[in-house]
Amino acid sequence: MTRAGSTAKLTPQKRVNQFFDSVGWKPFKFQRDCWASYLAGESGLLHSATGTGKTLAVWMGPLLSWMNQNPDPEKWNSKKPPTAKVIWLTPLRALAGDTENSLRQPIEAMGLPWRLEGRTGDSKQSVKARQLRTLPTALVTTPESLTLMLTHESLLESFKTLEAVIVDEWHELLGTKRGIQTELALARLRQLNPALRTWGVSATLGNLDDALSSLLGIRPHGVRKIIRGVPKKKIRFQSILPPVIERFPWAGHIGTKMVPHVAAEVENVRSALIFANTRSQTELWYQQLLRHRSDWAGQIALHHGSLDGSVRTWVERGLRDGKLRAVVCTSSLDLGVDFTAVDLVVQIGSPKGSARLLQRAGRSGHQPDAESRLAFVPTHALELVELAAARDAILRGDLEARPLLSKPLDVLIQHAVTIAIGGGLDFDALLEEIQTTRAYENLSNEEWNWVLEFVVRGGASLTAYPEFHRVEMGEHGRYVVTDKRVIRKHRMNIGTIVSDAAMQVRFLKGGALGTVEESFLSRLKPGERFLFGGKVVELVVIRDNIAYVRRSKGVPDTVPRWMGGRMPLSSELSSAMRRRLEEASEGIYRGEEMKALRPLMELQKKWSTLPRRDELLIEQIKTREGHQIFIYPFAGRLAHEGLAAILALRLSRRCPITFTMACNDYGIVLQSHEEAPLHDAIESGLFDSETVVADILESLNATEMSKRQFRQIARIAGLIHQGLPGDRKPSRHLQASSNLFFDVFREYDPGNLLLLQSQREVLEQQLEASRLEDAMSRIVRHLIITKLPPKITPLGFPLWVDKLRERVSSESLSDRIRKMQMQLEQAAST
């Protein structure tokens, strides 16, 4: 470690160079560019591949700036640590500790007298109280904790002297309500100090200009720029292929059959991360790996966001120290944490996007110039097309854009109360400040008036209830909050932007395991076993909103199903898949994945066809269940759910007919007892895109969907509360409360802007209406090909299986599927 006293004559830049030499690195040009921009007072966004040194690129700027202002190191230790220079925002509090360690390394190596601390929901109350009196030189925190700090008027003077805010992993926040919360907090800090420098750090992002304007606002102070670092790392992809590629695949079929093959790969590396797309999948894979290699007990671990924080910390420490052979994880280890021992990433199933695949690949070889290695394990054969397409997209640099949110008023309501608590709200000044953000640049005076009316008097329908009069006019014409209970409840409610209705799981005699969504636990009976934290546990009792369990043996009855597991195929990956299928239609099979799929693709062409990029394939087949219509737009699961409902509605308008339906990322299947008038409907505009939204609202139970979406909006806007510590309300109470508000607003205040927001979010987030409209517009321009294959085709088989899952049969699902597969294979061989 370099001591300040032994290097007193070194210039700040030479100190930085010496630090890099001490760790065996040489600064990249983009890192030096970041330092120079920071020293020039500029703000910007750094975009560079994972594991290329982004942290040091943005962190050294503030350190160099301070050393330039304090050139005599002999005086450094004679002063108190400087206060409130930098706030570092991390999207996950689980990353805060590791980030703090990374930032501390150059501070200590160069002997700087900086005080670096963290502040998250897990921080001790004594630390938080001290920080409210005096902020440290640099603070690592989360968007929620920063927003909470804005409710303390005592910190405003410290924020006025703040030099910089650095937002890590900006691509994770962009296009989310937490990102909007961050935009509003940054606008407030810039209002307090217009010269504030703001830097974002990002990787794997397609829409950089949008990311920059969201980060810096639409009227930034000074020069702003995008610095592009190392665009690509060396990545070696491989597919772990099953011994036999079945011509009739179905989702999840391959699954854990690949455990021995994955274990063989893990055997040959120091350490591996095994990514699955859902928490349920990680639980199953962890158990299957241990069953296959019982000698690995204690050498492999499990990591996902619902596990207790102490468990996650233990796993992260084991990875960092190189003590764990493998960790089965979800996106909880996608970001930030630097595990240099990891030299293999295994991806179970399609990541559904090229950016996510690139992000995860970068978790291995997490050092500049090191090669990243990713092994892909399909859960069904058609996912091999997705991997081939994702590799194409990565080579072309076609990374997914993060669509932006526009004017979510629930977040704005929360922010208005935050500002009213933290020093008072001036109507015109705050409106002008809010309109500098990208999210609210088009906020109208009428909408802002409505927000203020809502927080002052509860809006048009809640005026008679004093508990919703949260904000009042104070001295000097500023709106303030004086009720201490309102202040306390609001501060407790700030984190609801990310919270789900979850229940803590604890051993009856022992510590905490983590959290599971209440909707899952409410269906269990005492004595039922489930898999959690890599252990089989048995539910004993639910008391005081805590599920108490004991260890159990045998096969679990179920695995928890967490929300957030529905990752749809991205638009960019969908387009790349259609390109690969077009090549296969012409007999071109590039790469090991497509070559392995050749028998499947050739059979698809023999019985039906493979659609080109400018074609829509429709297959009509009569089975013993009824008439089946298979349609393949390749637009992603969420858009297909809306499309299936629209097509069923439009077909039923032509004649009385009832459909059941299923969908996946590739297509949809409509099943009916009677044959549908498909050809006439196509001629009459079955795929017309002009009335998409109106037909969605008519065909689906849009009211019930809006009511569920409104529950989250009501929490964020402060209409309902999860309760104070020690008095948490169960989710059924919150559900009843939000439903009551929804019904009251619909009857007495139908123009309520939160109601309209819930409808808009259902369309855009649950049904991807804009993507659906794009798909419909594309279909109208395409050639529609209708086929009558003799049997269910390889493309249709996984849809048929998904439809079969919904039926009750005396045969087990796997037996029925296996029987159908055998019949189809026999037909294909003749």
Brief digest:
With 830 residues, the chain is an alpha/beta fold. It contains 32 helices and 25 strands.
Any chance you could write out the topology, listing elements then pairs?
Elements: H1 12-22, H2 29-39, E1 43-47, H3 54-69, E2 86-89, H4 93-109, E3 116-119, H5 125-133, E4 138-141, H6 143-149, H7 156-160, E5 164-167, H8 170-173, H9 177-192, E6 197-202, H10 208-216, E7 224-228, E8 235-239, H11 259-267, E9 272-275, H12 279-292, E10 300-303, H13 309-320, E11 326-329, E12 344-348, H14 354-361, E13 372-377, H15 383-396, H16 409-421, H17 427-434, H18 445-457, E14 472-473, E15 479-480, H19 484-493, E16 502-507, E17 512-517, H20 518-521, E18 529-532, E19 535-543, E20 546-551, H21 571-585, H22 591-596, H23 598-607, E21 615-623, E22 626-632, H24 637-654, E23 660-663, E24 668-672, H25 678-683, H26 692-699, H27 702-716, H28 731-748, H29 753-766, H30 769-781, E25 783-787, H31 797-805, H32 813-829
Parallel strand pairs: 1-6, 1-7, 2-4, 2-5, 3-4, 5-6, 8-13, 9-11, 9-12, 10-11, 12-13, 16-20, 21-25
Antiparallel strand pairs: 14-15, 16-17, 18-19, 19-20, 21-22, 22-24, 23-24
